[in-house]
């Protein structure tokens, strides 16, 4: 049941962030994504979950800043040109809450996660562009770069979850 809740909560956070940015209410979307993340961390008080969320925030900031700095993606409701907007970083944080739960089947297989990132990343950005949360300056190069960046990001994130799982399995109860 938690996996279903986890999946639905992330989907709601995605729509809140994307539609919020598209309608000049990015702060509301980001606040919702942060609330989803905070609720997840309260329900799963594990320091490795917090590390995964922080890692995803850093990776997301780098990925989306690279896209913005390359002038391939222009995010709506951004206050710092050339840098990832906070609503996107908060979305990456909410996404991280799925990696050990509703997407565990995916992240336990790093190569599959990378392939899924290469396909799903561009589709999510294309959907965001269709909903006016961002603009793609040159769609084909943008999609190719997004695919590559998301493949690498998902590879790293899945390895972080595998490391977490391996450490948890080696722990000896006190």
Summarize the structure.
By secondary structure, the protein is mostly helical.
How would you describe this structure to a colleague?
- The protein has seven helices and two strands.
- Helix 1 (2-22) runs antiparallel to helix 2 (26-43) and helix 6 packs across helix 7 (139-170).
- It starts with a helix and ends with a helix.
- The chain has one domain.
- The protein has a two-stranded antiparallel ribbon with strand order 1-2.
- The longest helix is centred in the C-terminal third of the chain and has 32 residues, at 139-170.
- It is mostly helical and 174 residues long.
Share of residues in helices: over 70%
Largest sheet: 2 strands, antiparallel
Q: Report the end-to-end length measured between terminal Cα atoms.
A: 29 Å
Using only C-alpha atoms, the radius of gyration works out to 16 Å
Q: Give the number of DSSP strands.
A: 2
Shape field: globular
Number of helices: 7
String of helices and strands: HHHEHHHEH
**Major sheet: arrangement of strands:** 1-2
Which consecutive residue ranges, at least 5 long each, have pLDDT under 50? 166-174
Beta-strand fraction estimate: under 5%
Q: How much is the average pLDDT?
A: 90
Output the structural class.
Answer: mainly alpha
Number of domains: 1
């Amino acid at each position: 049941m938690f996996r279903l809740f986890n999946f639905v909560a992330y989907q709601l956070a995605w729509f809140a962030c994307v539609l919020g940015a598209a309608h000049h209410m990015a702060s509301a979307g980001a606040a919702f994504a942060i609330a989803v993340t905070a609720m997840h961390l309260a329900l799963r008080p594990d320091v490795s979950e917090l590390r995964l969320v922080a890692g995803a925030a850093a990776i997301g900031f780098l990925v989306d800043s690279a896209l913005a700095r390359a002038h391939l993606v222009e995010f709506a409701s951004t206050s710092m040109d050339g840098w990832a907007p906070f609503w996107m970083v908060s979305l990456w944080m909410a996404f991280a809450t799925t990696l050990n739960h509703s997407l565990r089947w995916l992240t336990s297989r790093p190569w599959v996660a990378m392939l899924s990132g290469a396909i799903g990343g561009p589709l999510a950005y294309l959907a965001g562009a269709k909903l006016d949360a961002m603009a793609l300056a040159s769609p084909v190069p943008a999609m190719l770069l997004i695919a590559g960046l998301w493949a690498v990001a998902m590879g790293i994130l899945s390895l972080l979850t595998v490391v977490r799982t391996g450490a948890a399995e080696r722990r000896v109860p006190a």
